[in-house]
Amino acid sequence: LTILGIETSCDETAAAVVARDAAGRGEILGEVVLSQLDEHSAYGGVVPEIAARAHVEALDSLIAEALARAGRTLESVDAIAATSGPGLIGGLIVGLMTGKAIARATGKPLYAVNHLEGHALTARLTDGLSFPYLMLLVSGGHTQLVLIKGVDDYERWGTTIDDALGEAFDKTAKLLGLSYPGGPAVERMAKNGDPKRFAFPRPLVGEARLDFSFSGLKTAVRQAAESIAPVTEQDVADICASFQRAVSRTLKDRIGRGLDRFRSLHPGIATPALVVAGGVAANAELRATLQALCDAHRFRFVAPPLNLCTDNAAMIAWAGLERMAAGLPADDLAVAPRSRWPLDRQAATLLGSGK
Ligand code: ATP
Ligand code: MG
Ligand code: FE
């Protein structure tokens, strides 16, 4: 089976053609991602209007490019998968409408894919993982610990009650006058900083629930910067290093509890897997922390290549293939995009929030 995937939920326009064989192995036949970073960097964040317009301009040629790289045509794929939420509504409309138009014109089935499901299933494409496993999604819009039980079967164990982790990096960078996106800038500065200089809060550490909170950390960074004005380059480095240390320690506590819970639910799995996804997974200190934590808990730490951790269309295509292979029905062409769409059906009913 081969499928064309389309992703337009945030600030990446992407298309990919992915195949899945009878044994369940996936292969990316062709993919292309266009980041809109340059369009948004002057504003210090993603501007929805600009994003939607950029998706419209780029998508058709990106689809053609992905098909060309795969040596396929619209007629020679078996289905279309398009992200239909959660995300910025303008971009979602562009991608989903394009997917519908292709499906209508070719008569192929359309799969309206949840962006988070794309992140959740990527490790089965890259590493052939089997269910169940745990996923930590840490991006600009999401911070979630999710139990991946099967296709269309997810249990959200924890989420942020305020800022996403990538957002905390971005806001911290902005406060300190560093460039956008903030994650790489903070990480670069932290290399020359003293992680012990500031005792930043470690939100929710010690609590039994598996949620996250990062807005207090951002406030503490602001107070630290204000207390030492004028701030030197060394001060900024020290704040960044201390911030990153606080984040690492917080994740260590939160995720450690998640690993324990997984172990008690599934004592029969000798070496379960923790998968990381999202742009913050690029951070070397956080990766090292998660690796050490997994080693200590006898978990396997799976970090897919970074271009598949951040937003891409191969994961959307793959999620579509997984849904097909699991016998889930294709979507009606009347399906509507959803800016909020939690992965966990129970969370969807209880909270009605995409965060
Ligand atoms: P979504 O949340 O909808 O999946 P997004 O575009 O916000 O999409 P990603 O593209 O996956 O998320 O990741 C971007 C985020 O990752 C930004 O907040 C950025 O600051 C953060 N980030 C990138 N590199 C690093 C790094 N080295 N350290 C920490 N954070 C990083
Ligand atoms: Mg992005
Ligand atoms: Fe994403």
Structural features, described:
The protein is of the alpha/beta class and 355 residues long. The chain is built from 12 helices and 10 strands. The chain has helices at residues 37-41, 48-70, 89-106, 115-126, 165-175, 182-190, 215-227, 233-265, 284-297, 306-309, 314-325, 345-351, and strands at 2-7, 12-20, 26-35, 79-85, 110-114, 133-138, 143-150, 153-159, 273-277, 300-302. It has a 5-stranded mixed sheet, with helices on both faces. Helix 9 links the parallel strand 9 (273-277) and strand 10 (300-302). It is globular. The model is unreliable at 351-355 (pLDDT under 50). Fe (iii) ion is lined by residues 115, 119, 139, 311. Keywords: Acyltransferase, Cytoplasm, Iron, Metal-binding, Transferase, tRNA processing.
Quick take:
The chain is α/β, with parallel strands linked by helices and 355 residues long. The chain has helices at residues 37-41, 48-70, 89-106, 115-126, 165-175, 182-190, 215-227, 233-265, 284-297, 306-309, 314-325, 345-351; strands at residues 2-7, 12-20, 26-35, 79-85, 110-114, 133-138, 143-150, 153-159, 273-277, 300-302.
Radius of gyration: 20 Å
Question: What is the overall number of helices?
Answer: 12
Secondary structure class reads alpha/beta
What does the largest sheet look like?
5 strands, mixed
Distinct small-molecule ligands in the complex = adenosine-5'-triphosphate, magnesium ion, fe (iii) ion
Oligomer: single chain
The largest sheet has its strands arranged as 3-2-1-4-5
Main location: cytoplasm
Family: Belongs to the KAE1 / TsaD family.
Keywords: Acyltransferase, Cytoplasm, Iron, Metal-binding, Transferase, tRNA processing
Pfam families: TsaD (PF00814)
